[in-house]
């Protein structure tokens, strides 16, 4: 038993000695792991080359026009469109000229001015369309004053109304300081204006009242009155007749005095009803002739037959013109 143990120990020592001095012939040593090569850095991206700026276009010189293209344009062949003859417009028939009425030539006009033809055919007692006055606050206005011409002033103002629906602004020069006097004058003159036919007041938008012995005036959508001259005509019984003449300027001249038929009537008559009309044929003839027609057609009973015959024999073509183109609707 002891011998067996001794032998085992000896054999183990011998084996250990042999293993420490040389490896076993068939054993292959496990190689050390080979380290990975050092990582190569990823190269930075190469930047794109700097862009080259586009050159600015060369401006065309201001004084040099852009040349036109020289390429020849080839015109296409067009199929001609058949010509269509248009139907002619119907011939327009012009407004007929009034037929000429024969006139007996006179050596001179029968009247110096028709306001003074001798008959008071509109009287203060005749009815008036005038209703009343309403005073309004004063405001600046441009007025014509024959003493000074056109003026800017601040007149006293009244609003005048008429029963036919028309109205007008009354502008009284501030030189009239008395309130009662202003109201009296405005009432008197506006009542007389209200005796005129509606047609004659259509364009009378304002009435100017001043001091002074100056002529009346019409036109400018207005009737101009200077008190001293108005008092004279009132005393003569002619205030209303003067206002008819002036209102004819205001409401009729613009629409009639340059028309073909009016000019033809002047030519066909070949003479004038008054010296004033003859001396001022373009500006005064219509305003001188109209009151004669108005007296003849609307105030017949107030003028004698001889005067009626004088009017008809002197300006028959003008009377025909008013008969054709003027309607006073019963005024």
Please, could you describe this protein's structure?
- With 331 residues, the protein is of the alpha/beta class.
- Among the domains are: 114-119 and 256-325, no CATH class; 130-236, no CATH class.
- It has 11 helices and 8 strands.
- The longest helix has 20 residues, at 2-21.
- The N and C termini lie far apart (179 Å).
- Residues 1-94 have low confidence and may be disordered.
Provide the fold topology:
Elements: H1 2-21, E1 130-136, E2 141-145, E3 149-153, E4 156-162, E5 167-172, H2 179-193, H3 198-201, E6 206-210, E7 217-219, E8 222-226, H4 227-235, H5 239-251, H6 253-256, H7 260-269, H8 275-279, H9 285-298, H10 305-314, H11 316-325
Parallel strand pairs: 5-6, 6-8
Antiparallel strand pairs: 1-4, 2-3, 4-5, 7-8
Helix pairs in contact: 5-9, 7-11
Q: Structural class of the secondary structure composition?
A: alpha/beta
Main sheet: strands, sense, barrel: 6 strands, mixed
Give the uncertain stretches in residue-range form. Answer: 1-94
Q: If you compute it from the alpha carbons, what radius of gyration comes out, rounded to the nearest whole angstrom?
A: 57 Å
Mean pLDDT: 81
**Helix and strand sequence:** HEEEEEHHEEEHHHHHHHH
Per DSSP, the total helix count is 11
Judging from the principal axes of the Cα atoms, what is the shape? elongated
Give the helix level as a range of percent: 25-40%
Oligomer: single chain
Can you count the beta strands? 8
- Largest beta sheet: strand ordering: 1-4-5-6-8-7
Fraction in beta strands: 5-15%
Terminal residue distance: 179 Å
């Amino acid at each position: 038993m002891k011998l067996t143990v001794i032998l085992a120990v000896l054999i183990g020592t011998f084996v250990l000695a042999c293993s420490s001095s040389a490896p076993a012939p068939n054993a292959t040593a496990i190689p050390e792991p080979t380290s990975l090569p050092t990582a190569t850095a990823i190269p930075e991206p190469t930047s794109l080359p700097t862009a080259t700026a586009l050159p600015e276009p060369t401006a065309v010189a201001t004084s040099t026009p852009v040349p036109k293209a020289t390429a020849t344009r080839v015109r296409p062949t067009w199929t001609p469109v058949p010509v269509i003859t248009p139907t002619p417009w119907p011939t327009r028939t012009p407004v007929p000229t009034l037929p000429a009425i024969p006139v007996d030539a006179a050596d001179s006009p029968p009247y110096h001015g028709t306001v003074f033809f001798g008959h008071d055919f509109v009287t203060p007692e005749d009815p008036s369309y005038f209703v009343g006055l309403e005073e309004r606050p004063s405001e600046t206005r441009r007025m014509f004053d024959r003493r000074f011409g056109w003026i800017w002033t601040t007149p006293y103002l009244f609003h005048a109304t008429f029963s036919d629906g028309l109205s007008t602004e009354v502008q009284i020069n501030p030189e009239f300081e008395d309130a009662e006097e202003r109201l009296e004058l405005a009432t008197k003159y506006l009542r007389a204006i209200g005796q005129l036919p509606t047609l004659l007041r259509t364009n009378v938008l304002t009435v100017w009242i001043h001091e002074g012995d100056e002529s009346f005036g019409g036109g400018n959508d207005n009737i101009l009155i200077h008190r001293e001259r108005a008092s004279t005509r009132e005393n003569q019984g002619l205030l209303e007749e003067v206002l008819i003449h002036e209102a004819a300027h205001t409401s009729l001249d613009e629409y009639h005095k340059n028309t073909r038929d009016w000019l033809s009537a002047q030519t066909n008559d070949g003479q004038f009803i008054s010296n004033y009309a003859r001396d001022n044929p373009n500006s005064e003839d219509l305003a001188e002739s109209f009151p004669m027609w108005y007296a003849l057609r609307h105030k017949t009973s107030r003028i004698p037959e001889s005067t009626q015959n004088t009017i008809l024999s002197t300006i028959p073509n003008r009377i025909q013109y008013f008969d054709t183109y003027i309607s006073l609707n019963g005024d």
